[in-house]
Design a protein that fits this description.
Layout (H helix, E strand, L loop, with lengths): L4 E6 L6 H10 L4 E3 H9 L6 H7 L4 E2 L2 E2 L1 H8 L3 H25 L5 E5 L14 E6 L2 H9 L6 H10 L3 H7 L2 E4 L4 H19 L1
Parallel strand pairs: 1-5, 1-6, 2-5, 6-7
Antiparallel strand pairs: 3-4
Helix pairs in contact: 2-5
Length: 199
């Protein structure tokens, strides 16, 4: 195999994916976070700010893209969303290629992709890790977020593949309904198994 093994990390909202991604980073695994890349592209001085303003006037300011204004401009409007995605996807793809180049000597790298199965990103990875938790834990975590409502949570959930289905498709499942130390142990065990498969 040339280049690093590529691991796709995914999980529905509130499952603890960011926590698990950080644990992989703590173990020295380089991580490409697609959401973080989008924030850079749309943040202050971001590469896509001017183009987004041209497409959706009034949705940006000196801080970059104002998500509160851009959201209503594209949500529920498939054509507008397509236009936005046509800008973002190639730019994120280019950042991912740079990341791959920078980390080509690493044994494994992790792509943090929230909608891995929904957007068919599973094709570009060697193994998929799904972060999961009980339904009660998920609901409780998400509803603690500022500005979150039950209605909003149900809408987001309806756009995501059911957790049970994700678990079936995963090569590894990390359960975050357990104490943090147990979750960390699962991460370390998974890394060991992946390293063993490289040997």
């Amino acid at each position: 195999m040339t280049g690093p093994m590529i691991i796709g990390l995914t999980g529905s909202i509130g499952m603890g994916k960011s926590t698990v991604a950080q644990m992989f980073a703590d173990e020295g695994v380089p991580i490409f976070d697609a959401d973080a890349a989008v924030h850079v592209l749309q943040g202050p001085g971001g590469a896509l700010v001017a183009q987004i303003e041209a497409l959706f006037p009034g949705t940006t300011d000196e801080k970059g893209v104002d998500r509160q204004k851009l959201g209503p401009a594209v949500l529920g409007n498939p054509d507008a969303l397509k236009q936005l995605e046509a800008l973002i996807h190639p730019a994120v793809g280019a950042m991912r290629m740079d990341f791959l180049e920078d980390n080509k000597a690493a044994p494994m790298i992790l792509f943090d992709i929230p909608l891995l199965f929904e957007k068919s990103g599973a094709a570009g990875v060697d193994h998929v890790i799904v972060v999961s938790a009980t339904e009660d834990d998920q609901r409780e975590r998400v509803l603690r977020r500022p500005g979150m409502t039950v209605d909003k949570f149900e809408k987001i959930k309806s756009l995501q593949m059911p957790d049970e289905e994700k678990r079936k498709r995963a090569d590894f499942v990390i359960d975050t309904s357990r104490p943090l130390e147990e979750t960390r142990q699962q991460v370390q065990n998974t890394i060991e198994k992946l390293k063993a498969s490289l040997a």
